[in-house]
Amino acid sequence: MKNILKFLxxxxxxxxxxxxxxxxxxxxxxLTNDVDPNxxxxxxxxxxxxxxxxxxxxxxxxxxxxxxxxxxLLGMPLGQDLTVNISVAGSSTATSxxxxxxxxxxxxxxxxxxxxxxxxxxVENMPIDETVTLILNMEAGANVATAAASLTLNLFRPAPCxxxxxxxxxxxxxxxxxxxxxxxxxxxxxxxxxIDGVVTEIGMCSPYEGSNFECTPWLPGTxxxxxxxxxxxxxxxxxxxxxxxxxxxxxxxxxxxIGFEILDPDGNSVYKVNVGEGVAxxxxxxxxxxx
Length: 291
Description:
Layout: H1 2-22, H2 25-33, E1 42-45, E2 51-53, E3 55-56, E4 62-63, E5 66-74, E6 82-88, E7 99-101, E8 105-108, E9 114-121, E10 130-139, E11 150-157, E12 166-174, E13 191-195, E14 198-202, E15 232-239, E16 246-250, E17 258-263, E18 269-273, E19 281-282
């Protein structure tokens, strides 16, 4: 009985080894790549996010929309390259100068199931505060899947901020009481406010060095004998009617002692930096009358 069990076990192992050896990559390639070139297939657009808005970079400037347009094959990969052409529908409201397509002829390579090309808007040619549509059609005859035969991209360019005009107040603090040291160990630059390209600079004076801008003197301390009451100061900036581009830039905080708060013309706090939390760069806030 034991001999019979050993013999059966031996036969089983040999069979499994034979199957394992016969199932190699060559057989897999024959199963997947030797496809009937006349087999039925269908194509569709793969994109599922169709609405885009232009955005603003860290400097407050508009940047173009960039994405990819992808077409896909439903079913098994084909054994030969497949060229798919796309065209712009006449019903599109986006004109040709508002966008750039990397290619209108896409090739799905043999053994693969998709191909893609690039899309980029040309923001300066897009209308302001208006959505335009770009409709793309796939040209593949009866092989186009009816559920995704076309692709619609909704493109939006928002209107620039129309700033609330008037006097903006900046209340400044230095927690150590020796004035502002921003991007310099003894002083440095002030906050720069660029209004349609014209820069105004403000900041608390430092007792250690003069400023290359008209700094704001500190407020008197409670102790008249203390000559270093460089603790608090207030400055103002006038934003005129019709200003479109207003950018506030903070140069930095060398010793982690600076704080400030910006009030709009109505006295509302629109931006605040607690002591030691200021990061050099554009301040991400707007006070718009049209948004």
